[in-house]
Design goal:
This protein has 366 residues and is an alpha+beta fold. 28% of the residues lie in helices and 27% in strands. The chain is built from ten helices and 19 strands. The strands form six sheets. Strands 1, 4, 14, 17 and 18 form a five-stranded mixed beta sheet that branches. The longest helix is centred in the middle third of the chain and has 36 residues. The model has no long low-confidence stretch (mean pLDDT 83).
């Protein structure tokens, strides 16, 4: 167990702790593969990934003993990413420092516990940011921040936008192939043929990217639309398992071939305390099973000091530091007034490598 200020506030210890504290809000309302995707780590704050469209073409026939025919790769683009950096700090209270310096084990433990509480709170803020950015990406097709770095629930007031280039045909009423809307009639009308719409969507998705749709992230009105639909009532009435799930207020997995996720249960709070619901009440986002083929997280690197001493020169500062990817935390000494400050942050963003695999539908109130 660490016993000195230098050990307790060591960059390595703080970073190691912040990366292992239990995750928090929002993750139960999202597929686990979205919350904890495969991660690509880069040295620095810029990275590169391939934007993949996929191909429906087949290999070409050649005559016996004829040479091969050269193919040019199509539908693959390279995209550079400036990975967003998030950073805040907290003052380590004077009482906490006094406790850490104490030779009394009980008082020292109190200081260690206070630092652990600070780390846990900062970790929660970072986890909230990760989860909220993911739900924003799949609810809006973009992530928006204002000039103060606050995450926004809409594009209004945005100073920074991370746009995932989800095709316009994959949004709203889903005119996927340009021949007409898949969501041609509102789900708010009981007579709408939702089963046929889903069948058409599955067919269009396969033709567009080849990825079969597996998950449906839905807004707060969608459950009522399904329960009121004449066609779906017949399906529900034939299944005791479906009836039991609906009686609990959730859409049962397997209905229409999807695993359903109540994404409207995910929120985030603004700096003024306003609680924002990012996922639209009439929105259903359809996605394939999360995999590294089309979705991942990219983490950038931060150089973190190993200790809390003041460096004497640049060489000393560099040798007393280590490169850390993703979430990080460290403390440094301040002189006026004398004390310590704990810095914590994250360098990361979700990456949708196949934007055409994501379908952000508005099923009512067009």
């Amino acid at each position: 167990m660490p016993t000195t200020i230098q050990e307790v506030l060591s960059g390595r210890i703080l970073t190691g702790t912040i990366q292992t504290v239990k995750a928090g809000v929002g993750e139960d309302a999202l597929p686990p593969g979205l919350v904890n995707p495969s991660t690509v780590r880069v040295e620095g704050e810029t990275g590169t990934y391939y934007l993949v469209e996929g191909t429906r073409q087949t290999a070409r026939l050649v005559q016996q003993s004829a040479p091969s025919v050269r193919r040019t790769m199509s539908g693959v683009q390279t995209r550079n990413v400036n990975i967003p950096r998030f950073a805040e700090n907290m003052a380590v209270k004077a009482d906490t420092l006094t406790q850490l310096e104490s030779t009394d084990t009980g008082r020292q433990d109190m200081g260690v516990q206070e630092v652990a509480r600070m780390v846990a709170e900062s970790k929660q803020v970072l986890v909230n940011g990760r989860n909220a950015s993911i739900i924003s990406a799949f609810a809006l097709g973009a992530i928006y921040y204002d000039s103060a770095g606050q995450l926004l629930p809409t594009s209004a007031g945005a100073a920074v936008t991370i746009n995932y280039s989800v095709p316009s045909g994959n949004q709203a009423q889903l005119n996927v192939d340009g021949t007409g809307a898949v969501i041609a009639a509102t789900w708010a009308t009981a007579a709408t043929g939702i089963v046929k719409q889903i069948q058409n969507l599955r067919k269009a998705a396969r033709k567009l990217t080849g990825y079969p749709l597996k998950h449906a992230l839905y807004g707060s009105n969608v459950l009522d639309y399904i329960l009121s639909n004449t066609q779906l009532k017949e399906i529900i009435n034939r299944s005791p398992a479906y009836q039991e799930a609906f009686s609990a207020g959730v859409i049962p997995n397997g209905l229409l071939g999807f695993t359903w996720w109540p994404a409207y249960e995910t929120y985030f709070a603004s700096a003024n305390g306003t609680v924002n619901e990012v996922f639209g009440a009439d929105t259903v986002t359809f996605i394939p099973d999360p995999s590294v083929e089309w979705y991942e997280r990219m983490e950038g690197a931060t150089r973190v000091p190993k200790g809390v001493a003041i460096a004497t020169d640049l060489s000393d500062a560099h040798s007393n530091s280590a490169l850390t990817t993703g979430m990080y935390s460290y403390a440094y000494q301040t002189l006026d007034p004398l004390g310590h400050t704990m810095v914590y942050g994250d360098v990361q963003c979700p990456v949708i490598k196949v934007p055409g695999a994501v379908f952000i539908a508005k099923v009512a109130n067009f």
